[in-house]
Automatic annotation (TrEMBL):
It comes from Obba rivulosa. This is Tyrosine specific protein phosphatases domain-containing protein. Residues 129-209 form the Tyrosine specific protein phosphatases domain. Coiled coil: none annotated. It comes from the Eukaryota. GO terms for molecular function: phosphoprotein phosphatase activity. InterPro entries: Prot-tyrosine_phosphatase-like, Tyr/Ser_Pase_IphP-type, Tyr_Pase_AS, Tyr_Pase_dom.
Length: 277
């Protein structure tokens, strides 16, 4: 698939220098979820410099920590599992003045050989239907993890946060979609944000391919490894349809899986938005 070949580095660097991308030394795929118009709250946009998404921060530099602080980030929420951290040798760093909160979506028991083989098989296919199964797994398991983050948004509207998984694509993409959907952002814009991960991950391409080379399925299947870079807008559009039809829309998901009340949800929505002017 030609769209999964390496991207032109000049074009990538040019795009990474523009919003919603944010430069944090040592971290890739960092984006601000602010400045998206709300179609359910006309005249409002998602709050800039409030919520950021990224790939793992394990390699952040001192300069990167300074940049995070300048953005107003007070907490970093790490959705990676213990298994991932151990496998890749990427422990949480110490960030002076910024708290890291571990909120793993999947538990150790979710990484049995059988489950991992199935998950890798789904990733390897690159098919939209496969990603819907993967993303449904995330929704089914992520209530406690997402709940910690959403409640923080409810209770600390003046504290900037960053959340991430390993690549900043799947678990991070699902949570970003939930937040933007709750704020009233249109599906096309949410899908566009998801698609930007294709560019955001490109600087880490060699690192990702080196990791995949240690997994038998990907080591022997170049196409499957390349599919791991897939971040197609149509996948997110399909996910938003699943969220609506299978889970009863974002509000019902938050109530059932995160045990939020209608009042909680309204407070979170209000905290996510500011006047466009």
């Amino acid at each position: 698939m030609m769209d999964l070949d390496p991207l032109d580095p000049v074009s990538v660097n040019e795009r990474l220098s523009k919003p919603p991308f944010v430069s944090i030394a040592g971290v890739v795929n960092v984006r601000d979820l602010g400045s998206y118009p709300s179609i359910t709250s006309p005249g409002c946009i998602t709050r800039p410099r409030f919520i950021f998404r990224s790939a793992e921060v394990s390699s952040i530099t001192e300069e990167g920590v300074t940049q995070l602080k300048a953005l107003g980030v007070k907490k970093v929420f790490d959705m990676r599992s213990d298994t991932e951290i151990e496998r890749y040798g990427t422990p949480c760093p110490e960030l002076e003045g910024i708290e890291i909160v571990r909120v793993p979506v999947f538990k150790v028991e979710d990484y049995s050989p059988e489950m991992m083989a199935k998950r890798f098989e789904l990733y390897a296919s690159g098919q939209t239907e496969a990603f819907m199964e993967l993303y449904s797994q995330i929704l089914d398991h992520a209530g406690p993890a997402f709940g910690v983050i959403i409640r923080h948004i409810r209770d600390h509207p003046d504290d900037g946060i960053l959340f991430h998984c390993t690549a900043g694509k799947d678990r991070t993409g699902v949570l970003a979609a939930i937040i933007l959907k709750l704020a009233g952002v249109d599906n096309e814009s949410i899908a566009e944000d998801y698609g930007l991960t294709r560019i955001g991950r490109e600087p880490a391409r060699q690192k990702v391919m080196a990791r995949l080379a240690k997994v038998p399925l990907f080591a022997t299947n170049t196409e499957a490894a390349r599919n791991m870079f897939s971040s197609r807008a149509e996948v997110m559009l399909a996910f938003l349809e699943v969220l609506q039809t299978k889970y009863g829309d974002v509000v019902e998901y938050l109530k059932q899986y995160l045990e939020l009340t209608d009042e909680d949800i309204e407070i979170v929505r209000s905290n996510l938005l500011v006047g466009a002017s």
